[in-house]
Structure prediction request, 127 residues.
Amino acid sequence: MHFDHAGVATDDAEALADLYADILGCSVAHQETFDGMWVVFLDLGNGYIELLEPRDGGPIASYLDDNGPGIHHLAFATADIEEALARTQEAGVALVDEEPRPGAWGHDVAFLHPGSTGGLLVEFVEH
Prediction:
């Protein structure tokens, strides 16, 4: 398993993408409307920043209302998401997703409950 991306909740993905392009020298690798969000992936060369801008309410809008903009989750790539979930569950970690589900960019994803991971929302991603 390795680091894949940091998900950042924002009210303005385009402006934040422009800022990060200027200060980090990164570029847009992928963008799409997905699950009520505008999602922009910025390529850092060794991982991504995923910008999450709500379009139709939903969990990112609620997150922004409660917490303001900032890091929403960290994602780790795995070659076998079902095995990673089984290992995690055996370790006593509560899961948000007991089964993988479709995620942005066509990847399978599953989230771990932040109450079991030190307050951090963790995502597993299978490319």
Q: What stands out?
A: The helical segments are 13-24, 58-67, 81-90. The longest helix spans residues 13-24.
